[in-house]
Amino acid sequence: MGDDTHVPGPETSEFCCVNCDKRITTAQLYCSELCQEEAKTIRYIRAVNRDGRIARPEVSEAVDIKMAILLGGGYPESRRRLSADRRKAVFTRDMRQCQICGDGASEIDHIDGSLDADLNDMVNLQALCARCHRDKTKASFRPMTDPAQRRRAQELSRRIDAPEPVRPSDDEQLWPKTWQSIQAKRQR
After folding, report:
1. Radius of gyration over alpha carbons of the chain, in Å?
2. Residue 168 per-residue DSSP state
3. Is 97:127 a contact under the CB 8 Å cutoff?
């Protein structure tokens, strides 16, 4: 989306990504979908820490999964979003049964979650129960061996654990109003 080397002319303005400060030349808030996903994850984790939901095992597990996906490069929501018709077709085809354990299915899984796959093709989708979906997702995770990835994890943890939000986009309580104000200023 953004180009760090672009010098704005009189017809363009320069903005900074609200998550990473990368210079961008569009009025968007984020330089990429990954930056948007990162900010959203930080707000979610700060919220569940603040209100105590983190003590619930399923919430703690969801946090671990969100962080692992983020540190692995993200999983763009726009690429995996399914239409209501596609979701219904998968559940109908799979008779609303989990394709792993046979229990009732409540979620749709992308069998091959790599970004190289045709993610939303029917042959790449299956109905799963929530437990099997989480277990399948966690089984695909690999240990962090890259020092840059470890530094990134530390930086995210610092932002999550900070007593006060480090960035405006980290503020789980004020962000819903703050982003509208920033967006309005950028579109002027």
Report:
1. 19
2. G
3. yes
